[in-house]
Amino acid sequence: MDKKQLAMEKHREWQGKIEVVPRASITNMEELAVAYTPGVAEPCLAIQREPELSFDLTRRGNLVAVITDGTAVLGLGDIGPTAGMPVMEGKCVLFKALSGLDAVPLVLDDALANFDDERCALALKVLGELSTQRQGLLFTCHSREGRLLEGEPGVHRPCNSAWDAL
After folding, report:
1. Of 42, 77, 82, 101, most Cβ neighbours within 10 A?
2. Catalytic residue among 4, 91, 96, 125
3. Is 91 marked active-site?
4. Which of the following is catalytic: 3, 17, 36, 96?
5. Gap between the Cα atoms of 142 and 125, Å rounded
6. Which domains does the chain carry?
7. Is the full-model pTM beyond 0.90?
8. Where are the alpha helices (DSSP H) in 3-136?
């Protein structure tokens, strides 16, 4: 079997390369009440008082998003967001395997397509600033984002770079 056939077979078998697995056990109503409501209120209020606690009480310090609108996917070009999902999942697997970071793929179907360049630049700049202020990471994979956000703080763009060679 050649690599293309094997890749198709494995992707069909896996039905995606990542999954969300809860860290909290919920086997009864008491565990549910602690993990969700009403118990979740306590950590929320603690984080409201001391925002830095979010790194201790949530996955915030170990969770990133891999985002695309499908216009610059790996070496495939503009294949659309849905077709780009296997690449985004693959990047999430790399983040976990190489750095221990949990990653979630997000495809922006037409979310940015309806913005003109100025509004798109503003929206992406705000995302970058939020990322910096919250000390989180925003990983993007979109040709327009790369052009408009060149040098923006807090926005890391591993696409079309060494990451693509992995």
Report:
1. 101
2. 91
3. yes
4. 36
5. 14
6. 22-58 (no CATH), 61-166 (3.40.50.10380)
7. no
8. 3-14, 29-35, 41-49, 54-57, 81-99, 117-133
